[in-house]
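Recall that a protein's primary structure is simply its ordered list of amino acids. Everything else, from secondary elements to tertiary packing, is in principle encoded there. The following example makes that idea concrete.
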Amino acid sequence: MKLSLVDLYMDWPVSIKLKNLRGYIISNLEKKGDVIRWSIVDIQNSIDSYGTKKLKIRAVLAN
């Protein structure tokens, strides 16, 4: 088993409510490998008019 530390940036659309954010993040991370651990490192407001936010995620994945 190989572990890798990754930093990912992903959009947080307005349609995803806070209580559903965890599932949204995990489903995106699982596309890249088996999720061992993850955390939100930074949240930034996007410049666009749609109100989306940018999340910086740091995760440990097993491949």
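The radius of gyration is 12 Å. The first strand starts at residue 3 and ends at 12.
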